[in-house]
Amino acid sequence: xxxxxxxxxxxxxxxxxxxxxxxxxxxxxxxxxxxxxxxxxxxxxxxxxxxxxxxxxxxxxxxxxxxxxxxxxxxxxxxxxxxxxxxxxxxxxxxxxxxxxxxxxxxxxxxxxxxxxxxxxxxxxxxxxxxxxxxxxxxxxxxxxxxxxxxxxxxxxxxxxxxxxxxxxxxxxxxxxxxxxxxxxxxxxxxxxxxxxxxxxxxxxxxxxxxxxxxxxxxxxxxxxxxxxxxxxxxxxxxxxxxxxxxxxxxxxxxxxxxxxxxxxxxxxxxxxxxxxxxxxxxxxxxxxxxxxxxxxxxxxxxxxxxxxxxxxxxxxxxxxxxxxxxxxxxxxxxxxxxxxxxxxxxxxxxxxxxxxxxxxxxxxxx
Length: 367
Ligand code: NAD
Ligand code: TYD
Hints:
Layout: E1 3-7, H1 12-24, E2 29-34, E3 54-58, H2 64-73, E4 78-81, H3 88-93, H4 96-117, E5 127-133, H5 158-177, E6 181-186, E7 188-190, H6 199-209, E8 213-216, E9 222-227, H7 228-241, E10 247-250, E11 255-257, H8 258-275, H9 279-282, E12 298-301, H10 316-322, H11 330-343, H12 345-352, H13 355-364
Parallel strand pairs: 1-2, 1-4, 2-3, 4-5, 5-6, 6-10, 7-9, 8-12
Antiparallel strand pairs: 9-11
The chain binds nicotinamide-adenine-dinucleotide and thymidine-5'-diphosphate.
Nicotinamide-adenine-dinucleotide is lined by residues 7-8, 10-14, 33-37, 39-40, 60-62, 82-84, 86, 101, 105, 131, 133, 163, 186, 188-189, 195.
């Protein structure tokens, strides 16, 4: 039985992890701490909010006192650390928050963990799992081999640099103080509860609104895509079987150019609208409802500054040590994701029209 602190549990991957974990480990205690920034959504946790083993705490990972009291009072033995600023484009226009939260916030969390778990003479069994990204490794040319855990760090965006710095801090707390840590460096995730600023949810929501899909540059940049539940399973395997002090690459073995990805998303959306004729009545502005092909939505826009060309992840270590392999194939994952956005219009509409933010500000006060 574990007692977990999940930071950033109201964000995209964090919320998926909370559902995943409580489904599979019903007796475990799970406390979420989340500052509910623009990317956090309490609605994503609605279906677990009343469960006895679950608790939500509105709080900031930089509040060391709060984290220490949660670890101590709740007797927590595991931290799964998702909380971060996560959007590359925002890190280009405003890098400060990325270093503040991703680096200093992670350090604050490490200090709290050290104080409570490694107190002089009374260390307790614990695990600190840090969720990181493949972007710390920089980018690849078309023929380069995929990133392994020993690929030198070469982050290119302020986001990637802040995550790289956090990874080093976590490792240093292991080497210096003996903090029992693991790190996962994962590729691009997609699935439910994804804030509609990242490519896949943005494209789906734009298709449903009859808007265009902006593709940066010529759409030839390559990403490796992983359905979010597979990432959650990878983290579970690391907690259960991973070696302390070790990093694991988690990926989907699914490299696509952005244009290939969007063409597939458009094809599946057209297909789903064909299969379910009620959708044309519910989404009257959507491209298929107006008799147009979703592919017509694609438009090419100015490239992102310093846009990494290609990411690819070698998951050999996770395969051999954790018996991890992605289960959900790309078409199935995309279908599930599109269907989720079709079935959960309230979730994304309330984010986009500001009503969700107003509701949160009423609950917790405006930030
Ligand atoms: P997200 O932006 O959707 O969610 C981040 C969450 O952290 C939000 O709920 C936000 O409110 C919370 N948060 C931000 N600052 C906080 C603070 N100071 N204190 C407490 N909570 C705070 O991000 P995501 O896409 O779910 O990513 C989660 C983690 O996984 C991040 O660390 C990210 O770097 C990493 N990651 C993401 C991907 C991906 O494809 N999305 C891939 C690999 C790794
Ligand atoms: P994104 O979802 O922002 O993830 P990341 O930058 O962490 O990989 O972007 C995925 C890819 O899609 C990336 O190559 C940038 C590109 N992209 C677009 O072409 N248009 C968009 O509007 C966005 C948000 C991203």
